[in-house]
Specification:
Elements: H1 7-10, E1 16-19, E2 22-36, E3 42-44, E4 62-75, E5 78-90, E6 98-101, E7 120-122, E8 126-130, H2 132-139, H3 143-150, E9 164-169, E10 174-180, E11 186-188, E12 190-194, E13 200-206
Length: about 210
Amino acid sequence: MPYAPDLHRLLTPGARYTDEHGTYVIEAHPVDDVVLPTGQVVGCDPLVCPEAEPFTVTVPPGRYPARAWVAVVLRDGAEADRRVAALELVVHDEPAVRWELALVGDQDAATLDDDGYFGFGVDAGTATLADPTALEVLSGWDYDQVEDVFIPAELPEAPVPGLITAVLDETSGANVVTVSSGWGDGCYGTWIGRAEDGRITSFVIDFMVVPDPD
């Protein structure tokens, strides 16, 4: 079977998981709303690949709340680290009864090998869920503009590591909300939650921070 994270286990405030590195306590933190003037959603590292394709599943254009799910790592009872475990774009704030892998272009989940998944590459330790309208503007920026907005001398560390928001298209209000991507660079998948009636509940990037159950 293709890789399928236990997102119900991950998206639970106060949940605690332990491995040899420490105890992970899950916190939910609202971040700025994401404005989607086209209703298309792109998951990407915006500092490296803002021209990434949108997912094939769309939502009505509008403004949607987002949450960062942060794993606070405790060692000897004290906070030793905190990492963003997931970024969630909330479409309908209700429980999902099933999850599907978000796809782009002609990707087909049926072609995946055991434990395989489609995801986007991260090479700058940053991730977002955004509308192509905002990312198109970002793709035209030079390095100095990107650095001024998204690469400050000191990135936020708490409560949400790497949280930065910028409106990039003034006409539509399309913005980019970035967070630090889990442990850093890699390839991360996005999953789409659906309610019993098939409505989309959310898009969730899993940064593979929380240890799997034994």
